[in-house]
Design brief:
This protein is mainly alpha-helical. The protein has one domain. Helices cover about 75% and strands about 0% of the residues. It contains four helices and no strands. The chain is globular. The mean pLDDT is about 95.
């Protein structure tokens, strides 16, 4: 069975897509949100990042050619975003986690 044909992976991809849509819909209104809405938005972002990190890890452990191809695509996109080639994506996830932590702290202190 292909990695992406797995019912579990399909459900995870569907949830990731739903979370991404929620984030994108409200992204431009963030500065106008009240404190509670900002915290909720950042929590959704955090949940999305966690799910993406887990899926990436699963792809990394898979021998499936489609999973390997998707992993290569993610690496290419990271380079297009300005990360050096051969950047460890776990480093990218760690940086994003740090940014989310700082956002939550800044919102809590405001």
């Amino acid at each position: 069975m292909s990695f992406f044909n797995s019912e579990f992976v399909q459900e995870e991809l569907k949830e990731i897509s739903t979370l991404q849509e929620e984030i994108y819909e409200k992204m431009y209104a963030f500065s106008d949100m009240n404190r509670e809405d900002k915290l909720y938005h950042v929590e959704v972002l955090e949940k999305l990042l966690t799910k993406q990190r887990i899926l990436y890890t699963r792809m990394s452990l898979s021998d499936d050619p489609d999973a390997k191809s998707m992993k290569e695509t993610i690496m290419s996109q990271a380079v297009m975003l300005g990360f050096p080639p051969n950047t460890d994506i776990s480093y990218v996830f760690a940086n994003m986690t740090g940014i989310i932590t700082n956002m939550k702290k800044a919102i809590a202190e405001s």
